């Protein structure tokens, strides 16, 4: 058995450096000085007797062994956090610190309705929120940076447990008085190529909208330039095209102050599933199920 075991702090420094690729940024993310972080990693290398990081003035490059150690460090840190969660779960339900990542096409529309009630009814819950795209949020979950994720399905989440929150119907948003604006529901066949405005890469709503339309030519011709749903609405209001909006955004008043109208999409799978996910076999499963109940009640 090794006479030396790395400390969790050293592994946290190593993981932070791998994530940020820069000693200064990694130190800021770890809330320590750059010299403290650098010394911690050097001590880890010295006592293990290996080089994990190749250093130069401009580049930080991990060795092949260094990358393997980082992968193992992620698992160790996650296990350590779950150990702390296990102790915390033995106390009051849905209390203490909980970190949740939320995707941008949900956060501004659902959370303002829910957070005031959560603060009022669950005063012992300290909920830390992070807005991330679906891919980044799932990575945060599996790397232990987030305890749970509120996102839209279908999406490849890996090995997780989940709770259904709601089905969120998709709508087609047109400029007011658009001659192609039909009464009632809008079939995908009425969406003209080259007019569909979608979110940029990294937002799963884009894929949900295109999948619901089931028209491969739309995927090739869609103009993906929006960084947020609010941006897309303003572009539609300016007559630049049409877009897809989830019902929760409409309910939250995203069209207020515009002349944009929205019609339900008439398609077989014209909705996305809102779900809360967490790591499989998490000791805080009861907390997450209670949080899902709170989200459903919102």
From TrEMBL:
SUPFAM superfamilies: Periplasmic binding protein-like II (SSF53850), Winged helix' DNA-binding domain (SSF46785). The keyword Secreted does not apply. GO terms for cellular component: protein-DNA complex. InterPro entries: LysR_HTH_N (IPR000847), LysR_subst-bd (IPR005119), WH-like_DNA-bd_sf (IPR036388), WH_DNA-bd_sf (IPR036390). GO terms for molecular function: DNA binding; DNA-binding transcription factor activity. Keywords: DNA-binding, Transcription, Transcription regulation. Residues 6-63 form the HTH lysR-type domain. Pfam families: HTH_1, LysR_substrate. Belongs to the LysR transcriptional regulatory family. This is LysR family transcriptional regulator. It comes from Qipengyuania algicida.
């Amino acid at each position: 058995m090794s006479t030396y075991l790395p400390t969790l702090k050293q592994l946290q420094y190593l993981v932070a450096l791998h994530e940020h690729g820069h000693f200064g940024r990694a130190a800021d993310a770890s809330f320590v000085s750059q010299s403290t972080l650098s010394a911690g990693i050097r001590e880890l290398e010295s006592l293990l007797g290996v080089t994990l990081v190749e250093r130069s003035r401009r580049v930080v490059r991990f060795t092949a062994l260094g990358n393997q150690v980082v992968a193992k460090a992620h698992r160790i840190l996650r296990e350590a956090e779950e150990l702390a969660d296990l102790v915390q779960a033995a106390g009051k339900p849905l209390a203490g610190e909980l970190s949740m990542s939320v995707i941008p096409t949900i956060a501004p529309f659902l959370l303002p309705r829910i957070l005031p009630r959560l603060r009022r009814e669950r005063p012992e819950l300290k909920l830390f929120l992070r807005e991330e795209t679906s891919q980044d949020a799932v990575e945060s979950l599996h790397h232990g940076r987030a305890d749970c994720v509120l996102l839209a399905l279908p999406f490849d989440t890996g090995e997780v447990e989940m709770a259904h929150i709601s089905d969120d119907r998709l709508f087609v948003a047109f400029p007011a008085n658009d001659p192609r604006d039909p009464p009632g529901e809008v079939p995908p066949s009425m969406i003209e190529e080259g007019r569909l405005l979608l979110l940029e890469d990294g937002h799963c709503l884009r894929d949900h909208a295109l999948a619901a339309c089931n028209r491969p030519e739309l995927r090739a011709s869609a103009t993906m330039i929006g960084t947020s749903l609010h941006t897309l609405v303003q572009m539609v209001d300016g007559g630049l095209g049409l877009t897809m909006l989830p019902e929760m955004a409409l309910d939250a008043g995203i069209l207020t102050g515009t002349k944009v109208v929205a019609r339900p999409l008439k398609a077989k799978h014209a909705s996305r599933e809102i779900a809360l996910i967490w790591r499989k076999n998490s000791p805080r499963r009861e907390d997450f199920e209670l949080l899902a109940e709170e989200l459903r009640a919102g």
